[in-house]
């Protein structure tokens, strides 16, 4: 029964992902004046789903290796080392977050 619930949840999540990707593809195809087939959207959804699965496994393994049960920003930064552009964007974002937290008044 738990397996059925997990499978149903996966299907709902994949449907939500398909819907979101479909909206993005529709917006972009209108801008570019091109068409995208439902098969393209389905294939893109499957590719994104597989990437999400791989990223989640990597993040879980990084946290487990550090003997933690919670994924941290350090795990995300470790994962982003494979993509230099993403790593830079994330570092800038984290730096802004740290500055914002330090400017908050203490209670």
From TrEMBL:
| InterPro entries, A to Z | CENP-S/Mhf1, Histone-fold
Q: Among its keywords, does the record have RNA-binding?
A: no
| Entry-linked SUPFAM superfamilies | Histone-fold
What GO MF terms are annotated? Answer: chromatin binding; DNA binding; protein heterodimerization activity
The processes (GO biological process) annotated in the record are:
DNA repair; replication fork processing; resolution of meiotic recombination intermediates
GO CC, one annotated term: FANCM-MHF complex
Does DNA-binding appear among the keywords? yes
Sorted alphabetically, the keyword list is: DNA damage, DNA repair, DNA-binding
Give a Pfam family name.
Answer: CENP-S
Family according to the record: Belongs to the TAF9 family. CENP-S/MHF1 subfamily.
Descriptive protein name: Centromere protein S
Q: Which organism is it from?
A: Lepraria neglecta
């Amino acid at each position: 029964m738990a397996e059925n619930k997990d499978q149903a949840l996966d299907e709902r999540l994949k449907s939500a992902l398909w819907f979101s990707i479909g909206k993005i593809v529709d917006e972009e195809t209108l801008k570019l004046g091109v068409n995208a087939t439902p098969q393209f959207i389905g294939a893109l959804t499957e590719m994104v789903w597989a990437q999400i699965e791989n990223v989640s496994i990597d993040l879980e393994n990084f946290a487990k290796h550090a003997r933690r049960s919670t994924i941290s920003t350090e795990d995300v930064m470790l994962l982003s080392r494979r993509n230099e552009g993403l790593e830079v964007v994330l570092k800038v974002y984290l730096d802004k977050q740290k500055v914002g937290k330090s400017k908050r008044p203490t209670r």
